[in-house]
């Protein structure tokens, strides 16, 4: 992956307009798919839940719909930009595919930790049925969570694809609008953290260092996290080292909190205290270790993010450049 978002190339490369349009169409179809998921979630309260199952709360449904609509918007915008061969669309897909791949790897890690218990539960099902279901779920997860974002990442980093985008947008984007991709990834990830307070307003309960925090205290924690995330995102956009410091401290504190929560007590019991009852997320009914696997996956994810932050540090300015000082 290159370090600059728009670095002109004068070398002759094959024209990839057809492939770029095809990639854009796939992104638009993915966006439409997420819109369908959002619509399905929106009508979920109208359905009668199966006997013995607790229906999801309206707040949880609203959060899910909001997330799906946001993802759909990103795919639709990036796909349209790719069809029009706008270089910013290539940048959006590079950043989005990187984050998508990281989350996919984390989800696959959680599934890998769950696999022994899933195979054990196969004995309670008809021969071959549970095994086929496990294979199907893992295959879909690998395709959608790893192979698809990896394919986009490889495609949009190809020099011929980059040259085709730059040739189409020549004169539209100033050469000075160069920004390191690692910093863009960190800035966007930190900006996503601003939404933390919204989730806690919907469900004011969180886990911190092995303790359950309810009510206004949980909202206050979410508000602080959102404020610091916003500060970090803005300072990283300005390439100020202070933004990197805030992001690193946040990641270390979050990692310490998750690690202590894992070691403090049974994580399934811990999450049950937050209101996550076994009958709500169906899988915990037959796999009590799922919560533990999720916490371990979150710890590994935070560790990977810290390593990425350490790598990205070299792209920051310790002090603002002289030519960017206000007149």
Strand order, largest beta sheet: 1-2
Q: What average pLDDT do the residues reach?
A: 77
**Tally of helical runs:** 11
Sketch the major β-sheet: 2 strands, antiparallel
Give the helix level as a range of percent. Answer: 55-70%
Give me the strand/helix succession: HHHHHHHEEHHHH
| Radius of gyration using CA atoms only | 22 Å
Strand and helix layout:
Blueprint: H1 17-43, H2 58-83, H3 87-121, H4 129-157, H5 159-168, H6 181-192, H7 196-202, E1 205-208, E2 211-214, H8 215-237, H9 241-264, H10 267-273, H11 290-312
Helix pairs in contact: 1-2, 2-3, 3-4, 3-6, 3-11, 6-8, 7-8, 8-9, 9-11
Structure report:
With 327 residues, this protein is mainly α. The protein has a domain at 179-327. It is 68% helix and 2% strand. It has 11 helices and 2 strands. The protein has helices spanning 17-43, 58-83, 87-121, 129-157, 159-168, 181-192, 196-202, 215-237, 241-264, 267-273, 290-312; strands at 205-208, 211-214. It has a two-stranded antiparallel sheet with strand order 1-2. A hairpin with a 2-residue loop joins strand 1 and strand 2. Residues 4-10, 278-287 and 323-327 have low confidence and may be disordered.
Keywords, please?
single chain; 327 residues; two-stranded antiparallel ribbon; 11 helices; 2% strand; globular; disordered C terminus
Would you kindly provide a brief summary of this structure?
The chain contains eleven helices and two strands, in the order H-H-H-H-H-H-H-E-E-H-H-H-H.
């Amino acid at each position: 992956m290159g370090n600059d978002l728009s670095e002109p190339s004068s070398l002759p490369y094959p024209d990839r307009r057809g492939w770029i349009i095809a990639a854009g169409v796939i992104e638009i179809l993915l966006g439409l798919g997420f819109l369908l998921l959002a619509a399905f979630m929106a009508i979920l309260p109208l359905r009668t839940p199966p006997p013995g199952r607790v229906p999801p709360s309206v707040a949880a449904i609203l959060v899910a719909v909001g997330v799906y609509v946001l993802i759909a918007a990103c795919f639709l915008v990036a796909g349209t930009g790719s069809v029009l061969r706008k270089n910013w669309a290539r940048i959006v897909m590079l950043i989005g595919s990187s984050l998508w791949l990281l989350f996919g790897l984390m989800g696959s890690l959680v599934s890998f930790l769950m696999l022994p218990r899933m195979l054990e539960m196969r004995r309670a099902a008809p021969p071959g049925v549970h095994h086929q279901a496990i294979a199907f779920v893992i295959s879909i997860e690998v395709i959608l969570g790893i192979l698809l974002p990896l394919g986009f990442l490889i495609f949009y980093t190809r020099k011929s694809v980059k040259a085709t985008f730059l040739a189409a947008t020549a004169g539209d984007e100033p050469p000075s609008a160069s920004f390191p991709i690692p910093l863009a990834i960190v800035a966007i990830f930190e900006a996503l953290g601003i939404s933390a307070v919204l989730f806690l307003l919907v469900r004011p309960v969180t886990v911190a260092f092995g303790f359950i925090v309810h009510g206004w205290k949980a909202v206050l924690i979410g508000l602080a996290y959102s404020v610091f995330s916003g500060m970090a995102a803005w300072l990283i956009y300005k390439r100020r080292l202070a933004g990197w410091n805030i992001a690193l401290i946040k990641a270390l504190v979050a990692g310490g909190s998750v690690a202590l929560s894992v070691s403090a007590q049974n994580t399934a019991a811990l999450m049950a205290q937050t209101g996550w009852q076994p009958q709500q997320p169906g899988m915990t009914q037959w796999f009590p270790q799922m919560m533990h696997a999720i916490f371990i996956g979150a710890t590994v994810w935070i560790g990977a993010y810290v390593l990425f932050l350490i790598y990205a540090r070299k792209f920051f300015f310790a002090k603002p450049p002289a030519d960017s000082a206000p007149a």
